[in-house]
Amino acid sequence: MRKYFGTDGIRGKANLFPMTPDLAMKLGQAAATIFRRGEKKHKIVIGKDTRISSYMFEYAIASGICSMGVDVVLVGVLPTPAISFITRSLRADAGIVISASHNPYYDNGIKFFSSDGYKLPDELELEMERFIDEDKAVLEAVVGRVTRIETAIGRYVEFAKSSFDKNYDLSGLKIVVDCANGAMYKVAPMAFAELGADVAVINDKPNGYNINDGCGAIHPETVAKKVIEVGADLGIAFDGDGDRAIFVDEYGVIVDGDYILGICGKFMKEKGLLNQNTLVATVMSNLGFERSLNKIGINIIRCDVGDRYVIEQMKAFGLNLGGEQSGHIIFSDYNTTGDGLITALQLLKVIVTTGKKLSELQSFISVYPQVLKNASVSKKVPIDDLKNTSKLIKEFSDQLGKDGRVFVRYSGTENKIRVMVEGTDYDKIDYIANSIITTAVKEIKNRGDV
Asked: Which member of 53, 101, 285, 292 is catalytic?
């Protein structure tokens, strides 16, 4: 079991364990040791989001890397998928992103890309944890140097734009873009404007404290309001590190990752571009979404929550589309990780080439009512060890049968238990979700863990 890493790197409150400068330095030392390839001069790329604490961690990690004789390339504020691209582009040994994604400013996180731009498998994260706990760092006589490149934003914008059909542009489209006061605040408006869109930008003035604050992908109602106000064709809301996006149509209706997967999957299938007419979705994706795609000849492979698990399944089956309901979408023909900007460009490609509005494109998907409930816990007791909760889950699952699902898990980035229930009757699934989460919290508390 991993000690520091969750489903997407290490995350927590900045300056409190495990998100301390000391651990960040040790992570830098571990990365410098583990990711070296060949006999060439070694280098690791570091990027960050707009949190006030990102500067502190940037220098701490860089110090650890340099102490092991490896060079550091700082690219400043850039979206997570841009770090994946730049790591590959610079032939670096690894890439590091300092970000807590959609979390508030007072949290931060550290996640890694290997030289090929993919997130790390569990085995490598465990190896890094062992390196830290066993204090394996052996300092080099010759230290590494730190350099900064100023062209990373432009390079990434051109890379993302290359995924958009050169025979088309975005002229005539009015788009509202919510940058979440995060890592997309320069990149996204630049890309859309260069392709000819009429862009209305909101939440593009980060101050270190306002990232994700009432805006971005976790608050799509903000961009929805602006779409109605200015009469836009659609709205795009990124999260703090830009690896996912949520959309709203011309009526201000929220369009999540399931719909985007469905729209783009259908388009790719019709063009003969969807590998094996199959895509990957997580266990959280709606059952109605799956059945809607099955009706048009698209198969779904399910996996655990987390875009790296989506990618693992995509690689295993040779697929080129996968993603999460939360808006992490992977178009592996273009990038190796969830990329909010490329997702937006692929959706816009469908809109432009078909001439259809977003509301029309999504109409073939019929989703089931779905209820999500969360509760904080101080310790993640295995669900199977919660006998009353497990019994209740089985009873309700049997009641729902083939027309519904119950899914209970712990968050990979927070101390929270999450319950998802879907079915054909909203009142019934709401009752089920409340019953399960109340029972789980009570049972954990009685064990002395809350």
From this structure: 101
Question: H/E element holding 410?
Answer: strand 405-410
Q: Where are the beta strands (DSSP E) in 319-394?
A: 321-323, 329-331, 370-376
Place of tokens 């590091």: 96
* Least confident interval from 157-171, 233-247, 312-326, 435-449: 435-449
Q: Which two tokens stand for residue 279?
A: 């895509």
- Which helix (H) or strand (E) segment holds residue 315: the answer is helix 307-317
Q: What digits encode the pLDDT tens for the residues 199-238?
A: 999 999 999 999 999 999 999 999 999 999 999 999 999 9
Token duo for residue 244: 């996912």
- Residue 211: what are its φ and ψ, rounded to 5°? -60, 130
Q: What CA–CA distance (Å, rounded) separates 325 from 304?
A: 12
Rg of the chain in Å (alpha carbons): 22
Residue 442 burial class via C-beta count within 10 angstroms: exposed 0-12, middle 13-18, buried 19 and up: middle
Of 61, 31, 43, 58, which is closest to residue 131 (Cα–Cα)? 31
pTM for the whole structure:
0.92
Q: pLDDT tier at 357 (50, 70, 90 boundaries)?
A: very high
The answer to whether residue 411 is catalytic is no
Tokens 């690896």 correspond to 243
